[in-house]
Amino acid sequence: MNLNAIRILGLDPGLRRTGWGVIDVLGSRLSFVACGTILPPETGEMAERLAALHRGLVDVLLRFAPAEAAVEETFVNMNPSSTLKLGQARGVVMLAPAQMGLPVAEYAPLLVKKSVVGAGRAEKAQVRMMIGILLPKATPETDDAADALAIAITHAHHRGAAARARAAL
What is the pTM of this model? Predict the structure, then answer.
C-alpha cells in the first residue's frame, strides 16, 4: 500500500450475509485490496448471530486496517420483522468500525448504483460489470461482496462531502 493512499472498507449489511470490500484510494486511482462475505449462523439466538457478525467484522478490520468505512443505508421492507432484523445487523456493522475510531459514512442504494454504474436503477449484473472495469483485479464471489466494493467506490468519490457533513454536526 502506498503510504499516501487512503484505505476504505465498504460494507453491505445483512444478518444472513454481510459483504465487505477493501480498496485503496490515491487521488482518483482506485486499487482493489480484498473482499468477502461474513456468514453468521442462520439459526440460534439473535444475540449469538449478531456476536458472530461482530467477530467477523473485527477480523476484517484488524486484517486490513482501513482508515475509513462506508455502509449502505437500509431500505424499509414491507415486512416489519425483516426490517428490524436488518436494522440490528446494520447497527453491528456500523458499531465495529466506529469502536476502532474510524469515521463511518452512509450512502443510499440509489447513490451507490448511480456512482458506480451511472444509473440509480441499475441491476446487480451491471454493478458487478462496472466493479470489474473500475477494479480489474477484484474477484467478488458474491453479490454482497460486489455491493460492498461498490459502496467503497462510492465513498471514494464522495468522501470529501461526507467529511464536511460530519464536521457540520
Answer: 0.91
